[in-house]
Amino acid sequence: MLVLHGLDEFGPRDLRQVDMYRSRLIREQPTVLVLAEPVVALFPEHAPNFWSWVRASTFRAILEDTLPEEDREQRLAAMREHFGFNDEELVRRALDGSLPDEPDIAEWLVLIGRGELVGRRGPGT
Amino acid sequence: MTRLQRFRAYMARMNPVADPETALREGLYVDPPGRTVANALATRLELEPTSTHLVLGGIGSGKTSEVLRAAARTKGSVADAGDLVEYCDVSRFHDVQSESWTGVLTALVGLSLADACRGLVPPKTPEAAAVRAVRHYAHGRTRRRFPDDDFDFSIAHDDGSVTEHVAGVLKAPDKPLPDELAGVAAHIRLLKNACLGEHKQAIFLFDSLDRLADPERFREAVEDDLRALKSVGIGVVVVGPIRFMAGVDRAIANLFDETHYHLAAEPARPEGHDFLVEVLRRRAGSEMLPDACLEPLARASGGVLRDLISLAKRAGEEAYAFGNDYVTPEDVARAADAFGRALAVGLDDAQVKLLRHIRKTGGFVIRGERELSLIETGRVLLYEGPRWVVHPTLAPLLDAMPEVAA
What we know:
CATH superfamily of the largest domain in chain B: P-loop containing nucleotide triphosphate hydrolases
Largest sheet of chain B: 5 strands, parallel
Oligomer: heterodimer
CATH architecture of the largest domain in chain B: 3-Layer(aba) Sandwich
Number of strands of chain B: 7
Structural class of chain B: alpha/beta
CATH class of the largest domain in chain B: Alpha Beta
Helix content of chain A: 40-55%
Largest sheet of chain A: 2 strands, parallel
């Protein structure tokens, strides 16, 4: 995955170039463009073609220190039910490297405060 | 297949920026309702292979797919006649930011015919010289130049005087073609006859010129080239930006024999609804995208193909994030809300007022950039009639706009 940031100085002229050369930006792998809202507001006018590609996959980040507790519990409950095991089993499997390679698993580990186990391949790694 | 694998397969099929040629090859193309631009173009080109056409349509409306389909159908129809039909994405060969556009289309036709003549043209013939000339015209050449060689002494008379041309009082009604372009056109005629013979036709379909939203640059790209290519009997199709449908820029269409409008398929009409539903079904089965989701997606898209696929993709993301095993109507509703909010980004107060007016009355008069911008950015859609509507995901948000736009 490619994360692009630091483009908040982009103005109308830059965006028109992005629009014209948009074909060169197509990739197989996911790309995340992180932008301040004032720059995003320029896209429809100055890069309408590129905007039509990405506008359905636009997310507004609400920056808070923590996820509300109710939302966190709801999310954890959904993942425990889906995978069929609890947090202790999750940690055990993470330590021996037998967890499936899925984004939900990474999120689960982070939500229970064990983010350091994400991507662990086995004992001692 | 795991849940993740199923959703990944679904998301891969719902790619709004997929190459249209790939989508056609994979059988994802569905004929739009009514008389399609593809069929109208193909019929005209079969009957009048030297005619010129302009195709206009909104961003994400499927113009490229229609032109590709027209090229394929025309190729199939004229295969026995041996005519040449070529699709060309201009942006792959010429920098769209270039200051200079006159001669580009002609150069691309020349290169294509030069390639078609490979192996057919003996050396040291006018046709071989034509191949070199068109390649030089397209790609340039280097030559040795001696210093102080600016004055051509061969044209001086014995007494040292030189002849100069004085323009007459009459001005030719049609601007003559630039000399170099006229010269290349003559070479192209030779090559066309060499590789196709005098009785076969050549038709070229040029895509990506809709990136030239500046009408003067677009005019520069097509005006002289259309005349040059028509003079040697080559048919041309060009894709242009939607803004040429309305306002003062409509005059650009006068350069062409015919203009084709590729409009959104109206979801409220049965044929529009059926078309949009079929587009979705070609990409996802009912186990991932149940029937109950199809109509809400079709309605929310407003009939714009890219928006339809983008909404279906976003609904898939919502479904996955919520822990669902397939897309539900609630996922579609969340996707439509998010899409409408994205459409609202960047709207100013005057545009919001205008959108409310269109929503209330259906009336829309294009007076300038403000109105054209709403069309170009897909906030206002055009259906047959003509009928103007606010994008269905944006319309419900207009009354709460101060909060949405903050």
